[in-house]
């Protein structure tokens, strides 16, 4: 059995070639896609600032083989982001991802003397 790791991936990009309809929809829905909506989910959550309507990020949880590493988790998340953006009719460019492997992440806990 292959070891699975859980990754948190932030995919960032820039809006590009938005139609007037897409731009209007993004502006109308901006309050649902602000800082309060930042969650890591398998289907991804979209966040952006309406003014200026320039950049966005999408947050994903990706579970994949540990042997494939962070690079594969990033590629999977970017593919999910492309599919979601395409389905919504939004144009984008310059996707890049930041990956954190939750299974290897070190957690620093305060000792009792530092509390």
TrEMBL record:
It comes from the Bacteria. This is Uncharacterized protein. It comes from Streptomyces lasalocidi (Streptomyces lasaliensis). The lineage of its organism: Bacteria, Bacillati, Actinomycetota, Actinomycetes, Kitasatosporales.
């Amino acid at each position: 059995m292959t070891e699975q790791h859980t990754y948190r991936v932030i995919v960032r990009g820039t809006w590009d070639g938005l139609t007037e309809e897409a731009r209007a929809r993004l502006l109308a829905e901006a309050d649902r896609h602000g800082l309060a909506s930042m969650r890591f989910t398998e289907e991804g959550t979209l966040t952006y600032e309406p003014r200026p309507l320039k950049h966005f990020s999408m947050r994903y949880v990706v579970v994949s083989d540990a042997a494939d590493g962070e690079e594969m988790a990033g590629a999977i998340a970017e593919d999910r982001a492309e599919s979601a953006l395409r389905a919504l009719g939004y144009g984008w460019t310059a996707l890049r991802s930041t990956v954190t492997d939750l299974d290897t992440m070190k957690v620093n806990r305060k000792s009792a003397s530092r509390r």
